[in-house]
Inverse folding.
């Protein structure tokens, strides 16, 4: 019997969506292990409010570490606190979400606990007394099964993969000490711009490639993304050409995305790009070359001039959404 | 400035993955291996810092098979001073085991900076850099896209969802590089010739017990074959109709 510690994440005092996923996944794992779920909430004093309601996704207890130095992400502080809680005993697994913060945090926790780590997993289970994980490797070109052979394992979960269900647990809130010793300080968080959606988190992504012929034509992509309520993505070619920031790059040396809808505009579909978006639920491709590899993975393709097709699509989508 | 850069030999990102006879590994025949793309940003950053400091040493470390000597040689051709190969037939799936072997080598090295790529494009772990930092008790900032160093102190920027974190730290430190940190140089012919004479020390990696085992590796489920609806803007209403009624994503 072993318990599961779910490390949650907040920004500006608001619980991030992935936190509910990580608590829910912890619930499933704890049920398999015959243990309970503790959700760890880290933040500025008063942060416990973000933990209210975590019982509804499966937390038996909510442990709160509040400290002024925890308002922003504190790499060593969060890792030290999570490791101290985990060391206190009874845990068989620590789960973290593989967000920008979680990717930084999970290896630190694993090192501090001397525990094996599986990152960015799309599945986690308990078999023969060991934690097992399923995860994409080679940017999704292959899927790996792992066994973590230790009494305590650390696992980070791919966001948007573990859809939370409903549980009726108590989620009783209690305080735990914050371990604040830190070797680095997050001095400031600069927002990317009002309401700008991150490509890795958006449910709709509209990406542009070299077919747009120049950075000025990305306005077409932005308008379509806006009409669909989605984020703007870009191919490696246009990022390397300096047309778009790297934060928008989709593919093996950019972000891996799994949105509900992915629209590829003027993107031929190099292997490294396909690796980053092939798990989208629905793929739409618009390209002038009917033999472009992107059409092999597109649920719906239109061959032709994107400069005619995209404005028309923006118009029709706006109409459809208004109606 | 004394700088260590840890690099990895990985399949090129254009590689089509095929399964090998061994159920837990890919078929490496015909696969082109390259230096992990993110590690190139780390090597470039090290070279620029050495140039700016007007001296110092850039040492490249790789854990991997003998063939990783070529990967090290590539970094030496870019301008690194010497290489260290920690020999292992295969890089273990256990990131902490890899980190321990690297930390054992780096310990007491008197480094000002230890640099990594933010992740390797084969196992996509994002883990070894921060683990090495924790094992060595050093400050660490991961996935940095901007770096300023002055008087033994640094400020780095890292991209997060919808924003940028500005992180302050003191040297010595471990940093992992995101794309965009710099533009890696291409080795010049002179550099390639010079690299042939630069020393590469080779020794067995101090790998302990691996507690992460790959029990299976397979290809992801295939998407159903693509469908082209037609040509030109007149197909758009049909596309919108299908997105609403068939795919139900509008």
């Amino acid at each position: 019997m072993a318990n599961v510690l779910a490390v949650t994440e907040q920004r500006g005092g608001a619980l991030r969506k992935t936190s509910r996923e990580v608590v829910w996944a912890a619930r499933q794992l704890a049920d398999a292990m015959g243990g309970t779920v503790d959700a760890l909430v880290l933040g500025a004093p008063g942060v416990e409010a973000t933990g209210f309601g975590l019982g509804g996704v499966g937390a038996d207890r909510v442990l709160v570490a509040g400290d002024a130095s925890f308002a922003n992400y504190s790499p060593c502080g969060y890792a030290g606190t999570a490791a101290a809680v985990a060391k206190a005993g009874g845990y068989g697994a620590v789960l973290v979400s593989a967000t920008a913060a979680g990717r930084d945090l999970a290896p630190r926790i694993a090192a501090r606990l001397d525990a094996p780590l599986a990152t960015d997993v799309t599945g986690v289970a308990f078999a023969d007394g060991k934690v097992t994980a399923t995860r994409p490797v080679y940017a999704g070109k292959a899927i790996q099964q792992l066994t973590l052979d230790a009494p305590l394992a650390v696992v980070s979960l791919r966001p948007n993969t573990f859809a939370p269900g409903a549980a009726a647990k108590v989620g009783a809130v209690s305080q735990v000490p914050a371990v604040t010793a830190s070797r680095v300080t997050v001095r400031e968080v600069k927002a990317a711009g009002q309401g700008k959606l991150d490509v890795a988190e958006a449910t709709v992504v509209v990406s542009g490639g070299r077919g747009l012929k120049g950075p000025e034509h990305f306005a077409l992509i932005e308008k379509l993304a806006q009409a669909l309520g989605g984020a703007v993505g870009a191919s490696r070619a246009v990022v390397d050409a300096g047309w778009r920031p790297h934060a928008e790059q989709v593919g093996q040396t950019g972000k891996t995305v799994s949105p509900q809808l992915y629209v590829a505009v003027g993107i031929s579909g190099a292997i490294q790009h396909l690796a980053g978006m092939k798990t989208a639920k629905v793929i739409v491709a618009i390209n002038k070359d009917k033999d472009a590899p992107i059409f092999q993975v597109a649920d719906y393709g239109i061959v032709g001039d994107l400069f005619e097709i995209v404005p028309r699509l923006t118009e029709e989508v706006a109409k459809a959404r208004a109606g | 400035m004394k700088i260590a850069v840890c690099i990895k030999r990985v399949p090129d990102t254009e590689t089509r993955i095929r399964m090998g006879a061994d159920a837990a590994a890919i078929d490496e025949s015909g696969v082109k291996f390259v230096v992990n793309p993110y590690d190139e940003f780390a090597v470039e950053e090290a070279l620029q810092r050495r140039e700016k400091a007007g001296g110092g040493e850039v040492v490249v470390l790789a854990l991997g098979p003998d063939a990783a000597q070529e990967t090290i040689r590539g970094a030496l051709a870019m301008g690194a001073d010497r290489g260290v190969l920690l020999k292992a037939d295969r890089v273990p799936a256990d990131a902490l085991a890899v980190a321990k072997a690297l930390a054992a080598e780096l310990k007491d090295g008197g480094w000002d900076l230890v640099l990594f790529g933010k992740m390797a494009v084969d196992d996509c772990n994002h883990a070894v850099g921060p683990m090495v930092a924790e094992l060595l008790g050093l400050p660490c900032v991961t996935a940095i896209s901007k770096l300023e160093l002055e008087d033994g102190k640094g400020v780095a920027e890292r991209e997060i969802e919808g924003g940028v974190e500005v992180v302050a730290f003191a040297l010595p430190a471990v940093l992992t590089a995101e794309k965009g940190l710099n533009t890696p140089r291409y080795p010049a012919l002179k550099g390639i010739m010079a690299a042939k004479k630069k020393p590469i020390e080779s020794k067995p990696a101090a790998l302990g017990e691996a507690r992460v085992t790959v029990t299976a590796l397979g290809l992801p489920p295939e998407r159903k074959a693509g469908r082209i609806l037609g040509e030109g803007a007149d197909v758009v209403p049909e596309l919108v109709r299908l997105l609403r009624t068939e795919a139900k994503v509008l």
